[in-house]
Design brief:
The chain has three helices and two strands. It is mainly α.
């Protein structure tokens, strides 16, 4: 039995959502913000290619998210990990 196909877009969304937990900097809500880059390098490179983070290569232990990266990170975090409101099944 072979290894199942992996949806790297879904992995990238999960990584970006988890970055929201470690966002710091003046623009946590929007704008300039940094997140710890302790994730898979392949995922970080794909997020860079999608213009959601700045180049992750370097000595810094964190990476800068673009404005769109911050916005998507927050939205994905709430989408993937938020609890449903009252009356939801």
């Amino acid at each position: 039995m072979g290894e199942p196909d992996i949806d790297t877009d879904r992995i990238d969304e999960a990584v970006l959502a988890l970055m929201f937990l470690t966002l710091h900097g003046a623009g946590r809500s929007s704008g300039f913000a940094r997140a710890w880059k302790s994730f898979d390098w392949g995922a970080l490179n794909r997020l860079y290619e999608k213009d959601l983070i700045c180049d992750p290569v370097g000595k810094a232990k964190s990476v800068v998210l673009t404005d769109e990266g911050v916005r998507r990170s927050k939205a994905l975090f709430h989408e993937l990990f938020g609890k449903a409101g009252p009356g939801a099944s």
